[in-house]
Write a structure and sequence with these properties.
Blueprint: H1 5-8, E1 11-15, H2 27-35, E2 38-41, H3 44-53, E3 60-62, H4 68-80, E4 84-88, H5 100-110, E5 113-117, H6 122-129, E6 137-142, H7 147-157, E7 163-168, H8 173-184, E8 188-193, E9 201-206, H9 207-216, E10 223-227, H10 241-253, H11 258-269, H12 273-288
Parallel strand pairs: 1-4, 1-5, 2-3, 2-4, 6-7
Antiparallel strand pairs: 7-10, 8-9, 8-10
């Protein structure tokens, strides 16, 4: 008897769901969520609201960062048994900065058919309304929380020519913008907040202007940051006295004391702490003459 693979293995659907407004779902996504045997959701409580809105009664199971090692193989076993499963995240397209990529990897190894159900993506949504170039861009996800790791990425971005897109927590946004300011100066930036939701907001402007706005207006909700790429890659990384003084002044203006500003500037500019200190000292002496 001739047997097709579909008779043996099920199908894993990577199903995009709304990032805010529940009307932002495709007709195909609604149909798939109704027809599959099981929906694997990052947060079943969150997904249940979407299913209730569309009167969908498909069984739910949780699949998230904290149970993916245990749950992933179990879902693969069900797929191998012929079940059809839809993977959904809390919002947007699964696999983008969430554990969905791990399940997809397991499915590839197991020979499971994987079908994308396209839809909303916060990355693309923020990019196309930012007003910044969209021809070429890079996406970073969430920046590392560890200062050293975060700084290493920010320093690489200084010479990145493509438009840069990343996610940020409202609790760390101002801190991140302060770290970017000495490196990026007056580069254009857009901060998209609560996309497609009731209080959707996009703040556009120079980096220092956007920093000043959010310093006085505490950000809330889910945030996507879009930054203008560098116009040209600097071939000479050396920093002159003017660069050093401007960097220290910028850090002091944004809340650093002088000692910390000198230390931070040395790290950001890739020069010695002594060089920064001596440069500032000379500038101060010259200013008093």
């Amino acid at each position: 008897m001739i047997m097709d693979d579909s008779d043996i293995n099920g199908i894993l659907y990577i199903c995009a769901t709304p990032i805010g407004n529940l009307e932002d779902i495709t007709l195909r996504a609604k149909r798939i969520l109704q027809e599959v045997d099981l929906i694997a959701a990052e947060d079943t409580r969150h997904t249940r609201k979407l299913l209730s809105f569309y009167d969908i009664h498909t069984p739910l199971t949780s699949y998230h960062e904290h149970n993916k090692r245990e749950k992933g193989p179990k879902l693969i076993n069900e797929l191998c048994a012929g079940k059809k499963i839809a993977l959904v995240s809390d919002a947007g397209t699964p696999g983008i900065s969430d554990p969905g990529q791990d399940l997809v990897g397991l499915a590839v190894v197991a020979g499971i058919a994987i079908v994308p159900i396209p839809g909303v993506s916060a990355v693309v949504s923020a990019l196309v309304i930012s007003g910044l170039p969209t021809e070429r861009f890079c996406f970073e996800g969430f920046l590392p929380r560890i200062k050293k790791g975060r700084r290493a990425i920010l320093q690489k971005w200084e010479q990145e020519q493509r438009t840069i897109v990343f996610y940020e927590s409202p609790y760390r946004l101002v801190k991140t913008l302060k770290e970017l300011s000495p490196l990026f100066g007056e580069r254009n930036i857009a901060v998209a907040r609560e996309l497609t939701k009731t209080y959707e907001q996009v703040i556009r402007g120079r980096l220092t202007e956007v920093l000043e706005f959010f310093t006085g207006n505490s950000p809330k909700g889910e945030i996507v940051v879009v930054i203008q790429g560098s116009n040209e890659i600097k071939k000479t990384p050396q920093k002159g006295p003017t660069d050093i003084c401007e960097c220290v002044d910028n850090l002091v203006r944004h809340g650093h004391n002088k000692k910390d500003a000198i230390k931070e500037a040395a790290i950001l500019l890739g020069v010695s702490k002594r060089e920064v200190y001596n440069t500032i000292l000379k500038a101060e002496k010259k200013g008093t003459e």
